Amino acid sequence: FAPANTKTVLTKSLTTTISGVQSDTTYYVRVATLTAAGTGVYTAPVNVKTLAAAKIPVNITASVPVAKTAVVNVPVVAGVTKTTVQASLSTSFSSPITVTAVNGQATFNTLAEGKVYYFRAQDTNSVGASAYSATVSKLTLAAPVTNLVSSNVTVDSATVSWTASASGATS
Predict the structure, then answer these.
(1) Residue 72: phi, psi to the nearest 5?
(2) Does the pLDDT at position 10 exceed 80?
(3) Which residues 6+ apart lie within 8 Å of 34 measured at CB?
(4) What percent of the chain has pLDDT over 70?
(5) Which of 49, 132, 146, 154 sits most deeply, having the most CB atoms within 10 A of its CB?
(6) pLDDT band of 11, cuts 50, 70, 90
(7) CA–CA gap between residue 11 and residue 33 (Å, rounded)
(8) Could you tell me where the beta strands, DSSP code E, fall in the chain?
(9) pTM score, two decimals?
C-alpha cells in the first residue's frame, strides 16, 4: 500500500496533525502500532480530502448605467464567504477603491466621470483568498448636460444652449 499521496508520521500520541499537504487533494491515512517487537498490522485506510482554497473568479462583467457609477457582476460560487472587487484608474491597481460584492454584485458610486476604470475580483472561503481575476475595463459616463434651452426658433433653424457637466463635456 503506497499511493502517491502517502506520508509517514511517527507519534506516541493517539492523535496527530499531518502538515505539509496540498489543498484540494485526497490523502489515504492508515495507522499501525510500533513496539520493540516491530510494526503491527495497519488499519484499513481512511480517505482524507483537504479543503480547497477559493478559486480565481471567472466571467466577471462590468457595466456603467449612469455617470460616476459602475456595477461589477461576479458569478456566485458555493463555499465562497466573501467576494472583494477593486476599481482603479491604473492597471497596476495603485490606490484601488475596494467594495465587497453582495449577491454577486459590487456597485461603485463615486467614480470620476469620463474615465477608463479597471476592475478585478477576489473570492475568499474558509481556507483563504484566491488570486485576483482577470481585469475588465469600462469607460464611465459623463454627467448629463443641464439647462438645455432653445431660442431664436425660425422656420428653418433654432439655437440651443446648455450648461456643461462637471466633467467638462460640451456636446
Answers:
(1) -110, 125
(2) no
(3) 10, 40
(4) 91
(5) 132
(6) confident
(7) 10
(8) 26-29, 34-35, 38-39, 46-49, 61-63, 70-73, 82-88, 97-100, 105-108, 116-124, 136-139, 146-151, 159-163
(9) 0.69
Query: What does DSSP say about strands 38-39 and 70-73: parallel, antiparallel, or unpaired?
Result: unpaired
> CB neighbours of 99 closer than 8 A, spacing ≥ 6?
84, 85, 86, 87, 106, 107, 108
Q: Can you tell me which residue has the cell 474615465? A: 115
Name, in order, each residue with C-beta under 8 angstroms of 150's C-beta and a sequence gap of 6 or more. 158, 159, 160
Maximum CA extent, the chain: 113
Query: Pairing mode, if any, of strands 38-39 and 34-35?
Result: antiparallel
Q: What is the mean pLDDT of the chain?
A: 88
User: Which cell numbers hold the place of 125?
Assistant: 472561503
* pLDDT tens-digit readout, 46-71: 888 888 889 999 999 999 998 899 99
Place of cell 520493540: 36
The mean pLDDT of 149-155, rounded to a whole number, is 88
Q: Residue written as cell 500520541?
A: 13
Distance CA 132, CA 51 (A): 20
Q: Name the phi and psi angles at 117, rounded to 5.
A: -110, 150
- How far apart CA 127 and CA 163 sit, in angstroms, is 53
The predicted structure's pLDDT at residue 2: 54
